[in-house]
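Bench log. Compound arrived from synthesis this morning; before running ITC I wanted a structural hypothesis for how uridine-diphosphate-N-acetylglucosamine sits in the protein. Inputs:
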Amino acid sequence: MIETVVVTGGGTGGHLKVADAFIDELFKRGINIIFIGSSNGQDKFWFENDIRIKEKYFLDTKGVVNKKGFGKIASLFNIFSKTIYCLNLYFKYKIKVVISVGGFSAAPATFASILKRDCNLYIHEQNSKMGKLNELTSKFATEVFSSFDDNSLVKDYPVSNEFFNSSRVREKVKTIAFFGGSQGAVCINDFALKVASKLNEMGIKIIHQTGKNDFERVKNEYKRLNINADVFDFSKEIPLKMSKADFAVSRAGASTLWELCANHLPTLFVPYKYAASDHQYYNAKVLKDKNLCFLQREDELSEDYFFEALNSDIHKISIELISSINPNATSQIVDIILKKS
Ligand SMILES: CC(=O)N[C@H]1[C@@H](OP(=O)(O)OP(=O)(O)OC[C@H]2O[C@@H](n3ccc(=O)[nH]c3=O)[C@H](O)[C@@H]2O)O[C@H](CO)[C@@H](O)[C@@H]1O
């Protein structure tokens, strides 16, 4: 009987949203949760005041991949010392199960799970191309779950039920949503402002998530254009915002991508071009190959392509999105984890 589970990982919203799904499921089952993340990145913002989590540790860890020379050595030493710290925690709490959702925040707690011999490591890889940490640690994992891998025991993504519950089949574009991922995307913000007046003339309403850094500028631009759009920097009510929209323009971060599918919302994806191994492009390409979305690289993003997409058969795409993902992936994954441990 597993009493306490460690959930680790984070950095950005995509990883943290999946961590949140696991925390929710474990909490419902009366299992104690220890969260181990980083003090750098968004981990504290998401979980610092979360009452579902029994113990929280935000360690001072940073990414190693883009560092060189002394910086790399210092980061590696830092991860090593934090790994020992986690290992001591595991002995204290008799930890036998660690769930990693990846990202640099996950490194020490994941390495510690490998060093503790009676501990099982489970990994959820969100993207179509495996992250560096998961590449390194997955061979030590008891199981790796991924929606892009045919060998995964559960292929559906851990999307929260709210996105399924508020889903509907779209008929006609009356409202458009622009989503920039957890941090916002200047290129999507600029594109939205470029097409806003035409959308307004067409009677199409605009919902726009800008990200924190670009919020004031975008809000003021809509004001200058005299357009009454629903503009916000970050919202906990994304399911509601999505359900109101009939079409979306979005980054192709994995969590957002599968939430859009669960909501049956036809989307034009504009992948973040600097994502590791171009994974956002390949995330969206899996849907594009099945004609379930529109896809354009940010350097090629054109108004013509966008308006053509708006005028296409979005009803058909919306219907076909119904079978692209099933609910309850998180509970299926947790069932497997508890059975194997
Ligand atoms: C720049 C970068 O490297 N981004 C990565 C990051 O994306 P990013 O952090 O943007 O992640 P995703 O798009 O996958 O997910 C964002 C999550 O935040 C939520 N949300 C977003 C906006 C908002 O206002 N409110 C809100 O709650 C969304 O509903 C979603 O659940 O992690 C993803 C999952 O590993 C990767 O696929 C992305 O490539």
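What the model suggests: The mean pLDDT is 96. Residues 12-15, 17, 126-127, 181-183, 209, 234-236, 238, 251, 253-256, 259, 272, 275, 279-280 surround uridine-diphosphate-N-acetylglucosamine (CB under 6 Å).
ITC booked for Thursday regardless.
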